[in-house]
Amino acid sequence: MQVIADLQLHSKYSRAVSPEMMLPQIAAWTRRKGMGLVATGDWTHPLWFREILGNLEELGNGLLKLKNASDGDPLFLLATEVSCIYSQNGKGRRIHTLVWVPSLASAEKINKEMTKQGCNLMSDGRPIIGLTSIQVAELVLTIEPKALIIPAHAWTPWFSVFGSMSGFNSLEEAFGPYAKHIYAVETGLSSNPAMNWRIKELDNRSIVSFSDAHSGPKLGREATVFELPELSYENIYKAIKGDRVQGTGNSKISYTIEFYPEEGKYHWSGHRACGVRRGPKDTEKNGTTCPVCGKPLTQGVEQRVSELAGRSEEDLKLEREGMFTKSKSFPNRPPFVMLVPLQEIISECIGSPVASPKVQTPYRQLTDALGGEFNILLKSTHDDIAKIAGERVAAGIEKVRRGDLVIDPGYDGIFGVVKLWREGEDKPLVDPSREQMSIFNG
Question: Considering the entire predicted model, what is its pTM?
Answer without folding.
Answer: 0.94
